[in-house]
Design brief:
Layout (H helix, E strand, L loop, with lengths): L1 H26 L30 H20 L6 H30 L4 H5 L5 E6 L7 E7 L2 E9 L10 E8 L2 E6 L1
Parallel strand pairs: 3-5
Antiparallel strand pairs: 1-2, 1-4, 2-3, 4-5
């Protein structure tokens, strides 16, 4: 009987994983909103309101169930751990370890990909860019700049209202909203 429970958990976890991947690929999977964790179901249901992955997210729960079933089957096959009193706690421990590992990897992934660009934009004051769309007198043009090896563009106007032509080097003096203010030299 315990073997069937382990097999059912392993099967249910694998089926859920496959269905999530297939349905998420074809139907998006990014539109479910629930309270907590920023309102997204893929982040889990808790009250942390923090971006990333919750311990209660479907992915982490599925990881635990799948690992519990897999470890349960393995421990059931070993004569010394065949008794459910021994195999079940070991399977739970294995499930917790796997789910914790998945949680740590996903949180690290989200931390790196969800970081804010605000602090990077603030470091641009004093950087030099090139005018790529002429800035008319008291008007708006466009500047190109390089940050971290990547080329970006942004709307720009001059601090003193003087026009700047295409190809002119300009120093970024401040950033207000999404608008860059520049001076020559």
């Amino acid at each position: 009987m315990d073997f069937l429970i382990y097999l059912s958990c392993l099967g249910a976890g694998l089926v859920f994983t496959i269905l999530s991947a297939v349905l998420g690929h074809f139907f998006g999977g990014d539109h479910g909103h629930l309270d907590g964790s920023g309102g997204h179901a893929e982040a889990g249901i808790d009250s942390s309101d923090a971006p990333g992955v919750s311990v209660l997210s479907p992915t982490i729960i599925c990881s635990f169930i799948t690992a519990f079933g897999g470890f349960g089957i393995i421990f059931h096959q070993i004569p010394a751990t065949r008794n459910p009193v021994i195999s079940a706690p070991l399977a739970v421990l294995g499930g917790i370890i796997v789910a914790s590992g998945v949680l740590a990897v996903l949180r690290q992934l989200f931390r790196r990909t969800q970081s804010s660009s605000e602090s990077r934009v603030a470091t641009l004051v004093g950087a030099v860019g090139t005018i790529i769309t002429p800035i008319p007198a008291h008007g708006v043009g466009e500047i190109a700049y390089v940050q971290g090896g990547t080329r970006y563009t942004a709307p720009a106007r001059t601090e003193d209202g003087v026009p700047l032509s295409n190809g002119t080097s300009a120093r970024i003096t401040r950033i207000a909203g999404g608008q860059f203010y520049v001076t020559t030299g």
